[in-house]
Write a structure and sequence with these properties.
rod-shaped, mainly alpha, 71% helix, single chain
Length: 310
Amino acid sequence: MLLKNNIPIKYVLGKVKNDSALVAGYAILIAVLRECNWLSVDIPIGGVPAILGTVLSLLLAFRSNQAYDRWWEARIIWGAIVNDSRSFARQVLTFIGNLYETGPESDLKERLIKRQIAWNYALKRSLRNQDPYVEIKRLLSDSDFEYLKAYDNVPNALLKLQGMDIHRAWKEGLINQFQQVEMERTLMNLTDSMGKCERIKSTVFPETYTLYIKLAIYMFIAVFPFSLFGLFNYISTPIVIAIGTLFLLIEKMAVHLQDPFENKPTDTPMSTISVKIERDLMQMLLDDKGDTAIPKDVSPNHYHNVFYIL
């Protein structure tokens, strides 16, 4: 869940505290050895450190771009889910709603829209390896909820129920064939978005790539103190620690961005998006019934709320 408010520096540094401790210990050790004249190696800063630093910067930039592309693709997919959810609700209300104001048709509209809201919550929780039933029971009938228990993929089962109701509505003459095709096309788009999310979730970023970049970072840190001590003396130690920690943070940022469905502060904001979809769809449904009440919006405003909202 990406937050607008600043993430505490304690949380950020906590992600690399062990690596930073190793860098600090190494930099202090080199400074002590040089002070005691037990080590007198000097490497020109324009030589190996400059080459390693340049190569490392390029690798980290490429790594960060690849990770951000995965995160941005996930965000685009959920943007499409927002649009398709609204389109589906509008189709339900206009295709069916213009025929009857009350009766079984009204119940059908409410069932279809609430089931679509439940689908968003179920997909969100499934992608985060959480119990998909937690947030959807209040939106479903008892029969629907029992039906889902036979399925491992709850979002897929919800789409099946939607398709079954749409087919039944066509059989009963509540919608014509053209309207059925249009509603099925919207369900197909939702299925496509679900599959794209599952592809990102199941496609593991190559671990060897992460290993090689971390190895390059440590090689750079290993030779860096020998280039700075002759120039800055004791000040070189905090410089090595700061620059080493910065490289490690950039690498860690890429690791977090590459997995946008892991329930982290850098996640695609699926919780907020799902709540926004519920708010919009319920407002459309209530307005169709002549009720002007607007459901309250919910979004995390502070960092410490993230784990409660997610």
